[in-house]
Amino acid sequence: MNIVLTTLNAKYIHTNLAIRYLKSYVMPDYEPILSEYTIKDPILNIVADIHQKKPKIVGFSLYIWNIEESIKVIRILKKTNPELVIVAGGPEVTYDYDKWLEKVPEIDFIAIGEGERTFKQLLDYHAGKIQLSEVQGIAYNIDDKLKITAPGPKLDLREIPSPFRFPEDVPHLSSRVTYIETSRGCPFSCQFCLSSIEVGVRYFNRETVKDDIRYLMKNGAKTIKFVDRTFNISRSYAMEMFRFLIDEYLPGTVFQFEITGDIMRPEVINFLNENAPKGLFRFEIGVQSTNDLTNELVKRRQNFEKLSRTVTMVKEGGKIAQHLDLIAGLPEEDYDSFRKTFNDVFAMRPEELQLGFLKLLRGTGLRIQAEQYGYTYIDEAPYEILSNNVLTFDEILRIKQTEDVLEKYWNDNRMPRTIEYLVSEVFETPFDFFQEFGTFWELSGWSRIGHQLQDLYTRLESFLLEFGKADMEIVQSLMKIDYLAHHTFQPRHIWWKDDFDADTLTGIERLILNDAELLERTVTPTKLTERNIRKHTFITPVAIRPNETNENEFIKEDGYLVTFFCRGQEPQFHFLAKKLMNA
């Protein structure tokens, strides 16, 4: 009996953990084939690939990001082989399964909730080992009537076999994200999240998890992301795993966690700051909103003061990058309130700030309460809201424009010095900068075309010239530093025009060559001479003196920025005051 387990991932680098759990659970009785695609792959190519495997049963793992494309695949597959048995599972079809069976009659069975045991029983049924009535946790139609079987007891996660030991996965471990699960369930009740529906938290066997991590690292996994909804809900468990990962550290491996910031104990953070290798861990922290009423309405318990303490302590430690999440469109959070939420969180300067928009997921409390809060939303996945009783569609569009430039100019870390100056000294608040620039970006048509690194600089410059309130000498100087900081060798192109003469340039070069102390502390591929200095340095006028100990501080002073390049190392900056040239 040929069986295919498949899904459409959002990106090629992603892997699907669910279908691997299904495969490991049904082995050795059955040997499913894992077939992963992306939502960008041509539908007919996916259908052809699955069809050529000659399956009798195909199981689909369905989510909001792949449901619409997956339905197209399912319908064509069924046309090519009407006898094919289609099994659907995953969070997108677990709820409203009756509507899905009606909308997509090509689906034969929907697995409700955890799928491992249900899928195994379905295979046993098709193998003639049990009756259909014995399969737990399925929905299906028979004679145009909906049939549902009760789910069985929750699985003992300690007994589920490892989903990571398939030889076919090994060649891809180094180039894809590996997802790992050490627990299921969430202790919180956030009404916008599916995880709130399952009460309680269950854990997998700790030693098995550790063995899996050792196996993954040994076979080249570079990015391992824990999908536990709240990794640090148990402090003792989190500490045990942190210690283990530090002890087993292999350079080049990154572990990513979703943590709850306000329950992170200071002693845990101190331990990580003192012992974790830099870059080993990455934290995702869901803030969502700092509006107390909003958090109360969505049943979200959050102490923002403690969360801020956690984020600040982690940032000061300099070991762990942090990704903070916001959700626009939550109940009673109007435009001004969201502006405050954004500024509250941006004040902590997280390495990344993700601005998301509320999606009314099937099965969540907010979807049930949609009418109460005046929500209008897209009927098809991902069910993103269009407006509510305090937020108009026009305001949502303005926030979306903010999201675009936030991603390009802050999260991508293209020009940290420049943006810090603008949000601190030029605009009333950080949100105002990103929002006004975002609107300018959209009206200029840049959201519909591509961009290279230097385009980001020229477009920001165009906006600020139009804005008219920034000291452009300072801004352009900071932009030059940020631009050069992204190069490990002399840039082939610059976005600005230098207009100082050849004699001035030669004079600066002589000053550099005569400064023995400067040359002593500067790393270059070879000793600098009059013949090679232009190969390994770049000199440009600036109107500021950078602070050597704090890249976000400077003094306004005319001079020249000398950048030394050595391939494989970050560029080194030296400021030469203009008055020295005139002395």
From TrEMBL:
Please indicate if the UniProt record lists Chloroplast as a keyword. Answer: no
Q: Which InterPro entries match?
A: BchE-like, Cobalamin-bd, Cobalamin-bd_sf, DUF4080, Elp3/MiaA/NifB-like_rSAM, Methyltransferase_Class_B, rSAM, rSAM_horseshoe
UniProt-recorded Gene Ontology molecular function terms: 4 iron, 4 sulfur cluster binding; catalytic activity; cobalamin binding; metal ion binding
**GO terms for cellular component:** cytosol
Required cofactors, per record? Answer: [4Fe-4S] cluster
Q: Name one Pfam family in it.
A: Radical_SAM
Which Gene3D superfamilies does the UniProt entry name for this protein?
Cobalamin-binding domain, tm_1862 like domain
Q: Which domain of life is it from?
A: Bacteria
Q: Which PANTHER family match?
A: ANAEROBIC MAGNESIUM-PROTOPORPHYRIN IX MONOMETHYL ESTER CYCLASE-RELATED, SLR0320 PROTEIN
Q: What is this protein called?
A: B12-binding domain-containing radical SAM protein
Organism classification: Bacteria, Bacillati, Bacillota, Bacilli, Bacillales
